[in-house]
Amino acid sequence: MGKQIIANRKKKKDMFFDKYGYDLTPEEFEKLFIQEYPEDWEKLWSHYKRVKEENKNKPSKKKKPLTHPKQSIRNIYNVRMKKHQQELYKQRKQSINDEE
Predict the structure, then answer these.
(1) What is the 3-state secondary structure (H, E, C) of the chain?
(2) What does the domain layout of the chain look like in residue ranges?
């Protein structure tokens, strides 16, 4: 597995959602994440540009997969929101079982 471009990704996600909550749209998340972590945003962009440049001269089978930085942030949002929904579902299910 490749290295993570954003260091301490899980910790940052947890701190971010603790601060801003879960009532964010993907666009709001993207904007706030870039404001909160500008150094990580810059790392995503420089990695993207570097890999894009490297891929120009490689045969198609040897090209590295490339995700646009905005899509990377959107993926962080989607994964965390899915996890949050699963946690809510478990809590609701537990409370229903406790009532019985």
Answers:
(1) CCCCCCCCHHHHHHHHHHHHCCCCCHHHHHHHHHHHCHHHHHHHHHHHHHHHHHHHCCCHHHCCCCCCHHHHHHHHHHHHHHHHHHHHHHHHHHHHHHHC
(2) 9-99
The answer to whether the CB of 73 falls within 8 A of the CB of 30 is: yes
Q: What distance separates the 2 farthest-apart alpha carbons in the chain?
A: 64
Q: What are the backbone dihedrals phi and psi of residue 4, each rounded to the nearest 5 degrees, phi first? A: -85, 135
Provide the sign of the torsion angle of the four alpha carbons 75, 80, 81, 82, taken in this order: positive
Whole-structure pTM value = 0.75
In this prediction, the residues of the chain whose per-residue pLDDT falls under 70 are: 1-3, 100
Crossing angle of the two packed helices 69-99 and 38-56, in degrees rounded to 10: 120
